[in-house]
Task: structure prediction
Amino acid sequence: QTKRNAITDDYEVRTEKLGAGINGPVYACFDRQTGQKCALKIIKDSAKARREVNLHKKASECPYIVHVIEIYENKHSKQRCLLIVMEYMAGGELFNRIKRIGVEGSFTERQAASIVHSICKAVQYLHSLNIAHRDLKPENLLFTSNDEGAALKLTDFGFAKECSDSVKTLHSPCYTSYYVAPEVLSKQSYDKSCDIWGLGVITYIVLCGYPPFYSLHNAPINGPMSPEMKRKIRAGEYRFPDSDWNTVSREAKDLIRAMLTVEPESRPTIEEVLQSTWLSKFAEKVPNTSLNTPAVLVEQSEQWTDVGAAIRETNAYNRMLSVES
Ligand SMILES: O=C(Nc1cc(-c2cc3c([nH]2)[C@]2(CCCNC2)CNC3=O)ccn1)c1cccc(C(F)(F)F)c1
Result:
């Protein structure tokens, strides 16, 4: 279970920063016994931090989720912290890899389908445990290595939450069914459907290199979402510009349209997404046409903050919606 001795007894912690998550920085560290390289995420102790740790630990047996090796509870300068030791993902983040593939050769629709399939398998596992991730974005998708057959895994449970398909009160003993209002009975938790929306945004970007919803003028990296962008998201207003999308299969666009359905209750479940034509037989059916994604990602990477902000905003917006509903 959670270890309380100093993590430095068992690991040499490097100041080499692997990135900064919502709840805290991520460093490389080395097991003093085996020399194994790991990743270490340090978060200030709080109810939110405990929820992140518990949900990530619960989900970590899934081959499509970054494995949690162990958890430490330590005091750092009077502040109690939780430290998550994770498997080291040597291939880095999703978009870095797509850019690199594009430099070496071509990045095809079938490779895109394989990437989306892996992310859907992670979401399928979480939803089967009644966990919604609620922060699906490229920076939280990492590859085990730089090899051809490297696995793609999901991380960062900073916004994850447990959600049942129907409201909890339905089964609580105090519940008297005579007086239940219809909307209470049919109330779904939309947390899971907010993951399906996120999958739609990521699938769109993997196939072309830019997001479906973004504001035209430069959105500040952490600023508020522009009203224009909010309007586009609420209206589900996005396009498949011919220049980038005329070589992409109809099945891919049909799946994106289904995932980017504005009404949460009309969005497909993760099971339905995985049963789609585009994903169910991607290995032999999806065309091997090459995509512009890598070139667009490279060219856009300076504005990437813009697009990164757009994804962050879209996720935040969806979380807010899922709470509201
Ligand atoms: O980050 C790398 N390896 C890695 C990273 C993580 C990791 C866990 C979390 C994060 N990274 C982030 C960092 C900020 C962005 N969101 C994800 C926040 N939340 C996490 O839970 C876990 C295991 N191995 C890496 C490895 C090799 C090369 C490279 C790069 F390509 F960048 F040089 C990166």
Summary: The longest helix spans residues 304-324. The chain has 14 helices and ten strands.
